[in-house]
Amino acid sequence: MCFLVFIGHPYVEIIEQPKARGMRFRYKCEGRSAGSIPGEKSNDTTKTHPAIKVHNYSGPLRVRISLVTKNQPYKPHPHELVGKDCKHGYYEADLQERRIHSFQNLGIQCVKKKDVGDAVSCRLQTQNNPFNIPEPKIWEEEYDLNAVRLCVQVSITLPSGELYPLEPVVSQPIYDNRAPNTAELKICRVNRNCGSCRGGDEIFLLCDKVQKEDIEVRFFQDSWESKGSFSQADVHRQVAIVFRTPPYHDPNLTEPVRVKMQLRRPSDREVSEAVDFQYLPADPDEHRLMEKRKRTEGMLQNLKLSSIITGSSMPADRRPFSIAKRTLGISKPTAASSLPAVASAGVSVKPQTSSFFAPAPGQLFAPAAQSSLKLDPPSSSSTGDTWKFLQSLTVDSQPKAPAFPSQTRVSRRVYLVHAEASDPSVLSVAGDPGDLLHYS
């Protein structure tokens, strides 16, 4: 027998809200279960689910649960509830006489943007409109596909057997964990959890997906609060943030102080679970100047000690050496000294500029190099023998040099040949050591 308990007017209360974040909405095309909506108290060790309680009533009842929009007015949402006892996008079942009812097999299946219109039309056709929103108003605004609410409608059974609907209630929003602007904030890892009380320490933080324009790193302790410094360019692929720590409110710390650090989304004030961060007293030698000075002094002392032990002389294999300029003469060494009378003999060599100084392109000397030198006979008969020797000399032509580019201009100096009167075989050449004259 069904009866009402008239202690007060019956009403419905959601005693465990669905977990707002951490659940991912699944598309139908993914071909997998949409999972079940976890309860707000659910954790890794204990699984809970949304639950309701009907006050001031004991008896059988009918429950319908559907999805509505996050903002008022609560319109039917295009997303669907799937699972046991679900049809046309909502859940409905007759429950036995219990005060508390838990829903373990409810999942959320999302629709694509192009299918939103068809899904809303289906809600209207199945009269799934808990708050009786006029149809024109339903189509006024776009739907937020990243957030939904559960709407619970309970109908109690009167003694006459008729169903009496109670006032519908809605849950807190449930956000799709796929979307960065609504996803659960989580700090996965940081490269360091301590820094100077003066701030400015660089920290690398790994996290779940965030939006670079809607995220901040918050440091707090009791009534003190500050934010890490970074730009949007410091957010890498939505999963890493590089920032600098803010200074602590007391820059003259004498011992470490522990504070909290967390992510916060300014748009909805959502925060992550906080982690510990430790502020350390400031280092008096922040740039390690004293350490560098001591290291430099030690090196100088070692150098002085080394010079005292080894002496001022340097090993021969470590002495610097210089390479002298290469000089080349084609005079044959002789024991006899040069005679000044020869210089007055006036023997000179005159090159023919038409052939010697006009070589063909790619050659250092003219082809007729053998006949390019002419010796003027001396005016004095005392040097006749010397002149005969000079006339007997022949100057061989030079071998071909490597070809120069056509743009290169090659110039040669005038060579002065002096014959020693005492030894006609001595022939000294003044000029560039690289330009040699051959004689036989």
UniProtKB/TrEMBL annotation:
Keywords, comma-separated and alphabetical: Phosphoprotein
InterPro entries in the record: Ig-like_fold, Ig_E-set, IPT_dom, IPT_NFkappaB, NFkB/Dor, p53-like_TF_DNA-bd_sf, RHD_CS, RHD_dimer
Record-level GO cellular component terms: cytoplasm; nucleus
SMART domains noted in UniProt: IPT (SM00429)
The keyword Repressor is annotated on this UniProt entry: no
Molecular-function GO term, any one: RNA polymerase II cis-regulatory region sequence-specific DNA binding
GO BP annotations, alphabetical order: anatomical structure morphogenesis; canonical NF-kappaB signal transduction; cellular response to stress; epithelium development; inflammatory response; innate immune response; nervous system development; non-canonical NF-kappaB signal transduction
All residue ranges annotated as the RHD domain in the record: 7-181
Protein's UniProt name: V-rel avian reticuloendotheliosis viral oncogene homolog A
